[in-house]
Amino acid sequence: MTRFLHSMLRVTDPDATIAFFKLIGLDEVRRFDSEAGRFTLIFLAAPGEEGVAEVELTHNWDPQPYDGGRNFGHLAYRVENVYETCAALSAAGHTIHRPPRDGHMAFVKTPDGISVELLQDGNLPPAEPWLSMPNTGSW
After folding, report:
1. How many CA atoms lie within 13 A of 104 on its CB side?
2. Is 121 helix (H, G, I), strand (E, B) or coil?
3. Which of 17, 20, 69, 85 could form a disulfide linkage to 11, CB 3.0–4.6 angstroms apart?
4. Is residue 54 annotated as a catalytic residue, yes or no?
């Protein structure tokens, strides 16, 4: 069963963005800081929608311009089997931009170039052909 998880937006002012979404009824449900990656992830959801339909705010600590629509990041879906889903997409001619080498996460793009994150519930054991498949461009 596929389940929508979240949409990701890159933000320059997390507090202002959280205040904006609060006005339309979304609250912060969790936060993750990555010292090594120099970013913060903040997840927002409407009451009762936690873990179901969230907005992920990504704040990169080093200032970056988000021109050309780069502030919209990706859609995310939990899939039943990330390997089988990627195999079906690949067989249909779509490029797997970030293969599921970890048995957990992959990135593909729609025909219009919108990034889609596929997440396995937990991790499947590492398997070929995904282990040796390189990343292709940005995801």
Report:
1. 3
2. coil
3. 17
4. no
Write out the E strands in 1-139: 3-10, 27-34, 39-45, 54-60, 72-79, 96-98, 105-109, 115-120
CATH architecture of the domain 3-61 equals Roll (3.10)
| Mean pLDDT of the region 59-82 | 85
Classify 102 as helix, strand or coil. Answer: coil
Question: Cβ neighbours of residue 21 under 8 Å, at least 6 residues apart?
Answer: 44, 55
How is residue 55 written in tokens?
């907005």
Q: What is the pLDDT of residues 86-133, one digit of tens each?
A: 999 999 988 899 999 999 999 988 876 778 899 998 999 998 898 888
Per-residue pLDDT tens for 39-57?
999 999 999 999 888 999 9
Sequence-ordered alpha helix ranges (H) in 1-139: 14-23, 82-91
* Domain map (residue ranges) of the chain: 3-61, 80-139
Single out the catalytic residue among 49, 50, 56, 117.
Answer: 117
Q: List Cβ neighbours of 129 (8 Å cut-off, separation of 6 or more).
A: none
Read off the amino acid at residue 48. G
